[in-house]
Design a protein that fits this description.
alpha+beta; 9 helices; 5 strands; 44% helix
Length: 196
C-alpha cells in the first residue's frame, strides 16, 4: 500500500502528476488545487497518497496536504461517490470551504460543484456532517514540519518494524539538540533511543 511518495516531478497536468521515485515513475491522479500548488517540473515533490485497489485497476490519488487526503477518504465512503467523483468534488471547492458547507448543511452550495446533484449533496451532508473535523485552527494540531531527512529516518524505522508513534518519539529525542544532522547520525541516535 503506497501512502506517501517523494521524488522528482516528471510531468504535471490539471488531473495528473508523474512522480519518479527510485527510478520508477508513478502516475498519480490529483485535484486541481493540488495541481495549482505543485512546484515546477523537475523539482522534488512529496505527495500524500491514497491507493485505490479494484479487481481491474490499482490507482494512486495524490494530495499535497494531509487534510485534503483525509477529506477525499471521507468522501469515498459516501454511497454513490467513487474516487474519480471525489477528485472532481475536491477540484470544485476548497477543502475547508467544503467542510464548512457539509457541516452547515449548505446543500445549495454543494450542488454548484460539477457532478453533484441534490441527492448526492444530501447524502454527503447526512453521512459526513459528524465525521469531519471541526473547522478553524482547533482542527490542526501544531506540529513542526519534518525535514526530508527526518521523514526518511522515520520511514526507515517503520520499515524495520518499529511502531510509528515510538519511531516519532525517538526521532523527536534525536533532533531536540540540533535539526541539521545527517541521515546516518539521526538514524543511529533514533535507533539507540528505541533500544533503551
Amino acid at each position: 500500500m503506497i501512502a506517501h511518495l517523494r521524488g522528482k516531478l516528471l510531468a504535471k497536468h490539471p488531473n495528473q502528476a508523474i512522480v519518479e521515485t527510485a527510478g520508477v515513475g508513478y502516475d498519480v491522479t490529483i485535484s486541481v488545487p493540488t495541481f495549482s500548488d505543485l512546484p515546477a517540473v523537475g523539482s522534488e515533490v512529496a505527495l500524500h497518497v491514497h491507493t485505490h485497489v479494484r479487481e481491474d485497476v490499482i490507482a494512486l490519488y495524490g494530495f499535497l496536504r494531509p487534510s485534503e487526503k483525509l477529506l477525499f477518504e471521507k468522501l469515498i465512503t459516501v454511497s454513490g461517490i467513487g474516487p474519480k467523483l471525489a477528485i472532481t468534488i475536491l477540484s470544485g471547492m476548497a477543502a475547508d470551504e467544503m467542510t464548512g458547507a457539509i457541516r452547515g448543511n449548505d446543500i445549495a452550495r454543494l450542488t454548484r460543484i460539477p457532478g453533484i446533484g441534490k441527492k448526492t449533496a444530501e447524502r454527503m451532508v447526512l453521512e459526513l456532517r459528524d465525521k469531519l473535523p471541526p473547522a478553524g485552527p482547533a482542527a490542526t494540531p501544531i506540529v513542526s514540519p519534518m525535514t526530508g531527512i527526518e521523514e526518511d529516518v522515520l520511514s526507515a524505522l517503520t520499515n524495520l518494524g518499529y511502531q510509528r508513534p515510538a519511531a516519532e518519539k525517538a526521532l523527536t529525542a534525536a533532533t531536540k539538540d540540533r535539526k541539521d544532522k545527517s541521515f546516518d547520525a539521526l538514524f543511529r541516535e533514533a535507533l539507540s533511543a528505541l533500544s533503551k
